[in-house]
Amino acid sequence: MKARATVAAGPDRTADGASAPAGGSGAGDGDGGETRSVRAGRTRAGGVRGSRRGKGGGAPAGGITWRQRLRRDRTLILMTMPAIALLLIFNYIPLLGNIVAFQDYDVYDLGITGSPFVGFDNFTRIFEDYRFWEVLVNTLVIFVTQLVLFFPIPIAIALLLNTIMSARVRAWVQAVVYLPHFFSWVLVVTVFQQMFGGAGLVAQWLREHGHEGFDLMTDPGFFKFLVSAQAVWKDAGWGVIVFLAALAAVNTDLYEAAAVDGAGRWRRMWHVTLPALRPVIALLLVLRVGSALNLDFEQILLQRDQVGAGASEILDTYIWWTGIKTGDFGYAAAAGIFKGLFSVAMVLGANKVAHMLGEQGVYSKK
Fold this sequence. Notes:
Elements: H1 2-8, H2 27-56, H3 66-72, H4 74-92, H5 111-114, H6 121-128, H7 130-150, H8 152-163, H9 167-178, H10 185-196, H11 201-208, H12 223-248, H13 252-260, H14 265-290, H15 297-307, H16 309-312, H17 315-324, H18 329-356
């Protein structure tokens, strides 16, 4: 009977007729509220401890430690180890050899450890060598010629290929344009010799039709245009791939909206395609300017004797001829350091110009 009376007492009364506390159902609700408060405190404390662990080097905010990441990515790390080893062996460890730029280096008897230090005497010799500055100017002239004639061509080819509707034709043209990238400079120079040399096909055809032949391969005034044409034929296909990848990321809705607004093919290219390519163009232009002094050594060396050192000498061939071939390694090392510092300055300057034009460049502006 007492149990029935307890049930019948209702939610506001106990079995003895006492009123339940207002706002809850007695001790049960009180315990529940206290339990919820404790759980909330533990959750907040756990969150604080988790954030502290993330900042302190334990489990990061993502909930995974660096050891777990190593275990997860061990296959990728092992795959990159050969490339890292090659980079260290052939790019970073040889930097220690730049010490010979401050020595009267004797490669045969004294070596690096025994050669006497001469301070900045090798750099003084560079700055006082008028021939060095002539070669530097000639290198920059050839670079500017290649930049004007070579850099826009991959962009134009990529825009033309992007307008071809047939995927098969586009792939075939891209393969043909990209194929010379795998040719060595020996083969490229040989092909141009057979085409534009004194006994080449073009000169023979002109003689057969009563005209005077020519030999572009031995013309010093035409040399900078010749090497630019060779670079276009060999490496334009590589740049086409980069720009086609950038064009593939353009939203097609922009073309449709421009077509609805009445924009023709040229206006769509000018107002949609080229603005989409601007970041890629700016990045590649900055990198190209940074390698202004890094013209193809093999390409120039193969044609150096045909046109003479006055027209074909660049900084790399001059360092090789004056420094390494004659055994003056200190002079060559000093010229190499100057070349590296000049290239860094060119990259920073070009990247600053890219920031002024609103582009990111190599790194973003902070």
